[in-house]
Amino acid sequence: MDNFAGTVYETLSTTRVRFSTKPGGFVSSGELVEIGGGDRKQLGRIISIERRNYLIDQDGAVQLSSLYDGDPSIDTKTMGIRGDFRDHIVGEIEIIGRRDGNIFKRPRAPFNIGEKIFKASREFLEEQLRPDAQSIAIGTFRDNHEVKVHLNLNELISKHFCVLAMTGGGKSWTIAVIIEAIAKEYDIPIVIFDPHGEYSSLCCARGDTPDAASVTGKIKIFVVAEKTIQESSDMLFEEKFNKQRDSERLCVNMADLETYQIIYLMQSMFELSEAQNRILQAGWSDITDDPDIKSTTDIEKIIEKLEEVASRVTKGEAAKNILNTKLRLLYRDAPFIRKQVDDPRADIKDIVKKGQVTVIDMSGMEVLYQQAFIAIISNKILRGRMRREIPPVLTIFEEAHRYIPSGAEFTASKPTIKRIAQEGRKFIMGMGIISQRPSRVDSDVLSQCNTQIIMRLTNPNDQKYVKQVSEHVTDSDLEEIRTLAPGEAYLFGSAVPLSLPTQIEADRLTLHGGYTPDIVDELQKF
Ligand SMILES: Nc1ncnc2c1ncn2[C@@H]1O[C@H](COP(=O)(O)OP(=O)(O)OP(=O)(O)O)[C@@H](O)[C@H]1O
Ligand SMILES: [Mg+2]
Fold this sequence. Notes:
Elements: E1 4-13, E2 16-20, E3 32-35, E4 42-52, H1 58-70, E5 88-100, E6 103-105, E7 116-119, H2 122-129, E8 135-141, E9 144-152, H3 153-158, E10 161-164, H4 171-185, E11 190-194, H5 210-216, E12 219-223, H6 227-241, E13 247-249, H7 259-270, H8 274-289, H9 291-294, H10 299-313, H11 317-333, H12 348-351, E14 357-361, H13 367-386, E15 393-397, H14 400-403, H15 414-423, E16 429-435, H16 443-447, E17 451-454, H17 460-469, H18 475-482, E18 488-493, E19 500-504, H19 519-524
Parallel strand pairs: 10-16, 10-17, 11-14, 11-15, 12-13, 12-14, 15-16
Antiparallel strand pairs: 1-2, 1-7, 2-5, 3-4, 3-7, 4-5, 5-6, 8-9, 8-19, 17-18, 18-19
Helix pairs in contact: 4-5, 7-8, 7-13, 8-10, 10-11, 13-15
Bound molecules: adenosine-5'-triphosphate and magnesium ion (MG).
C-alpha cells in the first residue's frame, strides 16, 4: 500500500511512540503521519529515524567484516544468509494531536501496540491545517507539495512577524511572496523600507495574469535621494528590468527631526561638544514646536531661532558657531532634507493609503541617514494611526539589525521601532522584521514578533538567540533549520496552526529584485 508507513511497537508516552516499517519500507524525518482510526485519528510527525536490519546485529557485522576483508566481492546471499535482506526503518513519532477549533488536542491515553501508521493524506492534512479565518497562502508543506500552507492574516499583521535567515536564504523572496499574496486579494496598505532598492521590481509583472496586474497596479515607489540620483537610479532600473520606473522623491523638513534624533545624528557624524549638546537639548524643541520654523526649508531661520536659546545656555561663541556650521553641513548633505519649497514634503496620507503598496527606496543613502529617515517616517505613521488619520498598515523593515541593533547600541531609529513593537498592535500598525543576523537585532523587538518565519541559519550564535527570543523553537527545530535549503522555511507562532517545514512559493507574480549580480555578466558592460 502506497501510504502505509509502519506499525507501533512501543509507546514512550501518550504523545510519543516508536514504530517500524516493513523491510524495504521508507519514511523520512519530518514527515507527517496519521495514526489511529475514525474520530481518534491523530496527526503525528516523525522526529527521528534509524535504519536497521534484523538479520545483522553487531556480532553479525563483526563476522561479515572479517569475511569482506578477505574478499570484498562476497555477497551475503551467496554465503547462505536467507530471508528478506532489505533494511527497515525504526523511528519515533511525536503526536501533534487533532484540530479542535483553533488548537490541537492531544490524546490522553497511549496508542495500542500494533497500531497502524499511514503517511498523512492530503485530505486529512488540509482538514487539519485549513485556515480558520482570512489568510494568505505562501507556499506548500515541504514534504507534501499538494498541501498549501496558509498564514492567518490578522495574526500575521497585527501581532508582528519576523523573517530570519542567513544571506541568500530567501528572506526577500519570502517578503515579496507575502506582499504579493496580500496585494492580490486585499487592500491592506503596506510600507516597505527598502535599503537596497530591490523591491521596486514589484511593479514588473511576471506573466500577463489578472493576479499579477492587481499586484503591480498597487505599487507606489518613493526614492529618498537628490534629484540626479533619483534619475540615474530610474535609468538603472529600466536597464535591468526593461520597464520604466515611475518614482517620486520623498523628503522631510529639517525640523521633522526630533531632539534625540538630531542629537544622535550630529553626534555620530561630527561629534558634539558638551555645550553644543546642551544647546540642542534646550533649544531644538522650540524649533519643532514652532509651526513657521517647522515648515521652513531655510536652514538660516532654524539657526536664528536656535541662537536665542544658545545665548541662554552657553557663553561660548565658538561652540555656537561650530554647531551652526555642523547644522549647515547636515542640512546640505542629508539627501532626505528639503532645501527648496518645491522639494516634495512627505505626507503620511500619500505614504499609507488603502490599496497601495509603498516601496521607499533608500538605496542611495548612508546607513546613518537611513536610520534617521526611518525614525521620522515610522514615527509619523505611528502617530497617524493613533489619531486614526490613516488606515491600518503593515510596515516592513529590511536589514533590521541596522536600525534596531541589539544590546546598548543606540540608533536614531531604535526608540521608534521599539515603540511600534510594543504599541503598534493596539493601533493595528503591524511590523515585519527581516534580518540575516538575528543575534544583532534588539531582543525586545524580536520577542514581540508573534509569528516567526525562520529559514536556513547556520551561525550558532544566531541559532541560540532565535531559541531565546522565541518560545516556540526547540532544539530539534534548530537542527532542522540548519539544514534547510534556500526557499525553505519553518513557520512558528500565532499565524500558523502548526510549526511546519514549508517550501515558500517559487512561482512569483512579479520579478525578483534581489538577484546577486553575476561578475562575468557585469564585466561584459565594461
Ligand atoms: N522560495 C523560493 N523559490 C525559488 N527560489 C528562491 C526562493 N527563495 C529564494 N530563492 C532564490 O534564492 C535567491 C536568494 O533569495 P533572496 O534574495 O530572498 O535572499 P535573502 O535571504 O534576501 O539574501 P540577502 O540576505 O543577501 O538579502 C533568489 O534570488 C532566488 O533565486
Ligand atoms: Mg534580501
